[in-house]
Structures are given as structure tokens and as C-alpha cells.
Model the fold of this input.
Amino acid sequence: MSEHRKIVIIGAGHVGSHIAQALCWRWCAQEIVLVDKDGGKAAAQAMDVADSLSFPAADTTVRAGGYGDCADADLVFIAIGKAREPGQTRLDLLGDSVKMAKELIGQLAPYSLPGVVVSITNPADIVADYLRKGLRLPRERMFSTGTLLDTARLVRTLSEETGVSRQSIMAYSLGEHGDSSMIPFSAIRVGGLPLESYPQVDREKLLSRTRLIGMDIINGKGSTEFGIGQSAAFLAETILFDRKAVLPVSVELRGEYGQKGVHCGVPCVVGKNGVEKIIELPLTPDEQKQLGESCAVIRKHIAMAEQLAPLD
Done:
């Protein structure tokens, strides 16, 4: 990884622009490049974000660019695709997202991608699998944000229910970034104590809020943006500064958790090389069953994606 840290964001819509803004305020890159099929939009977003860096002054360069910028980028975020409409699940976006992903694969084909590539496009697990295969990248360097945002929502809800600071809570949402996600309650620690130490916490409410907060936001204002922006920026900082943080991202499983050939949100050690290690939590038999059921949903839609837009 070079001293001049460069991040490319493909897709300059709500999510892409908020990632750019969040990245600027973390000062983790010297150069941020926005790429979009609508070049004018990318340029306008870049100028708007660049304006915000005057107070306080920062040396980050924010500009519009092209797909060729990915050839020397340390990190590429893919944030293409349509936003969810009220009432839509992430899986409902599959057809449009896969077709856009196939077009993007063609646009990136002339360039080598030496850095880490992270997909945010929904449905996150299926699109990450499709892009990894199409771009022919190793699983360590091509994954999605997975259940990172779901986990943020889980930790937030746990904090509200227990009165304990988010910084003192360890918990993960696993599986699909969607309605089949699951929570390994046995692995939750609040102030170092297991969840059983907080009998007031309703587990069904925890799972429901983790799954549905995103839809509540969309129903209320039309899109999610701030949460995913900060989640992606934190992930970028973890990669660029080699933090070795354990984050739940969606990586291809090759036997871990008893699953193969499926992208799934699981805790991973993340550093400059991307996913450096997959952490296997000691799940209970019931939790293992729930994770398997979520993987079955993802696997079914991976097959659908390959039928909708076969890769060459």
C-alpha cells in the first residue's frame, strides 16, 4: 500500500457521496475519486464534498474520475444500483443490480485491480459473489460490507435497551444483509457480561429491530445514507491503516461455519490485505441452524443471479 492512499468510489449517488464525505472527515486518504456513468453528477458531488474540507482545512483531494483510476487505487468501493423503495426488500433489487454489475465488470476488464474492492450494492451478499467471480479476484480482496451496518443497528439497540455505552458492547449480526440475518445471542457481551445478565432485553425485539431499522428509515425519508457512509468509512480506515479490527463483512466461505461457495456476513480480521482471517464463533446448534438457513437464502439468489446475467 502506497504512502499516497487513494480511494475510488464507483457510484456517486446518495450512498457513494456520503461515503466520500465520511472518508474526508476521517482523513484516511490523500485522494478520493468519484466515478459515475453520469460524469456531471460525479463532478458536482466531488466539488460539493471538496468544499466541506475548508473548515477545518484538510489536504485530501476529492475529484471526479474514470474507471482507469481503479488501476492504482488502494481501495475501491462499488456503490452502484437503485435505492430501495418503501416496501422493497434488498432481494427485490437483484435483477437491476446484477445487470449493472455485469456492465461494470466489462468497464473494469481492461484494468488490473491491485487493491481491495468492497461492494455495497444490494443485495450485498449476492452482488459481492457475482463481482468476485466476474472480476476474478481472490476472496480476501473482494467482499461486501455484509452485516456491518446490521451490527451497528444491533449494538445501538442493545445500548438503548441496557443503558450501557455502545463502546462496551460486543455483538454481531451474521448471515444475509437482509431479512434472514441472524444474531448469535450466545456471543453477545454487554460490559463483559453475557446477555442473560440483562433479563429486560427482549431477544425477538433485538432481531426485529436489527432487520427492520433500514426499512423504517426508507419509509420515513426515502433512503439510508449516514449509517452506511460511516460504516464504510470505518472499514476503509481499518484497511488503509492496517487496524486488524474484527468486523462482520460478507466474504466467500470455503468450509467455515460448515458452509461453502456462498458469501455470508461473518466476523473477519480486516487489515491492509483485506480479509486476513475469518473468525468462527462457537455457535449453539440452533444458531448454526439459523445461519445455515440464511446461507440457503443467499445461495438460492446467487443461482438466480447467474441465470439473469450469465458471466462470460
